[in-house]
Specification:
Elements: H1 4-13, E1 16-19, E2 31-43, E3 58-61, E4 70-72, E5 77-82, E6 85-88, E7 92-98, H2 100-103, E8 107-110, E9 114-115, E10 128-133, E11 139-141, E12 146-154, H3 180-187
Antiparallel strand pairs: 1-6, 2-3, 2-5, 2-12, 4-11, 5-10, 7-9, 7-12, 8-10
Length: 191
């Protein structure tokens, strides 16, 4: 796992790019990512069949309110982008994790924790975060503030970059829904 000075070295070497970059987001063994203002709520009106895109939850855009805040309602699933566009080189991999200060407000920040080598190549991409309120009252979040940490590890050079895989999220510029069914329709499997 990369320590703070190694994260700085990876940025200087171009193995990690964050736009915009804020040096104050570097932690002892991670770099914090901030909440973007692009968000959508998952809304389902029927059971979800993972193999059938027609049953997938609809995304309802959630724009910041007049004060620039994002409201997360009780037990809601909010998909929101990171503020930063990220590019991870082919010799790094990342692990995404929520921060304890946010968890102590009853908010879970999750998604697929692993961020693959080559994510965001070549031009950078936001990461879609899944934000869930565990409380019975709304929680107000502020775009531009720390929401999660990206821990980075060195790895051997992958034969295939994440950005070359089918239905990847390496060019996402906003919070995006699942590609799971489309991928499995293409490769002909339900796994």
């Amino acid at each position: 796992m990369l320590a703070d000075h190694q994260i700085v070295d990876a940025i200087k070497a171009g193995d990690l790019r964050l736009e915009p970059f804020d040096a104050t987001m570097i932690r002892p063994a991670a770099i914090s990512l901030r909440l973007g203002s692009d968000a959508a709520v998952l809304c389902a009106s029927q059971p979800i069949d993972a193999r059938d895109r027609e049953t997938y939850p609809q995304l309802t855009t959630r724009t910041p309110d007049a004060q620039g805040r994002l409201i997360v309602r009780p037990h809601e699933v909010l998909l929101a982008s990171t503020f930063e566009k990220i590019t991870i080189g082919d010799r790094l991999t990342g692990m995404l994790d929520g921060i304890s200060d946010v968890a102590r407000l009853g908010i879970s920040v999750v998604l697929s924790q692993q961020v693959s080598p080559g994510f965001g190549a070549p031009d950078g991409a936001v990461i879609t975060l899944e934000i869930i309120s565990r409380l019975s009252q709304p929680v107000i979040l502020y775009p531009g503030t720390r929401i999660c940490n990206l821990m980075l590890m060195r790895c051997g050079r992958a034969n295939n970059s994440y950005s070359s895989m089918l239905y990847n999220h390496s060019s996402d510029s906003r919070a995006m829904p699942s590609n799971w069914a489309a991928y499995h329709e293409q490769v002909g499997t339900g796994r």
